[in-house]
Amino acid sequence: MTTTPADIRWKPNQKVHELDRGRVTVEERDRTQPFLLLHGGAGPASVQGFADLLAARWNARVLVPTHPGFDGTPRADTLDSVQALADLYADLLEDEDLWDVTVIGNSIGGWIAAELGLRQSPRVSGVALVNAVGIDVPGHPITDVSALTPDQLRRLSFHDPERFPPDPARRPGPDLAALAAYTKMSMTDPTLRDRLAALDLPVQVVWGESDGIAVPAYGRAFAEAIPGARFTLIPGAGHLPQIEAPEELLAAIGAAR
After folding, report:
1. Domain residues of the chain, as ranges?
2. pTM, rounded to two decimals
């Protein structure tokens, strides 16, 4: 019996190649784990070192997008919310034809990761929220960073700020214009906390114990809003554990692998 393309039961790891000599269907086995690593307001440089560690230690494929508008990149007018960014990255996974993707997001990147997980894409297999923002927790508001000096922000961001002096070669502080375009500087979506109950994926919520921007109680509330989420507190780290405690963060994310 001749099998036509319409009869084939396609699998995520199966691809049809249209070659000069004919069509061939290939099913691939690849143990390389893909990760989508989403930065926060500190920009893509804040996750690049961790991306290198992740790729080297786990032989992983790590995609590190720059949110449009950050680092001088262009931003379409339609990209005006965190949900729009989540839709953009869902399209990116489709375009790259990636499956079994773990999405890791820090700060606003964690908010995007949570929204991407709520899209219920079959391409996403897990989410790690690292000092994420986005929910409203009464009694534990997120610190407004818009009026902080670079030194004030540094002291709220790190457990040991003296280890991370300002780099005169880099722009200090977050990209406020880009942040405002996506969050309107509120850093919360009043609907997100309730919607997280529908997040049906393995979720790790990882928090730096010394975070002065979103305190650990905020992180615990984030984990409690997600069915089955695991919460891990990292001592000796603040809002950016991927910089201050990368090994500990890697271990926390890998605990569920």
Report:
1. 31-164+173-254
2. 0.88
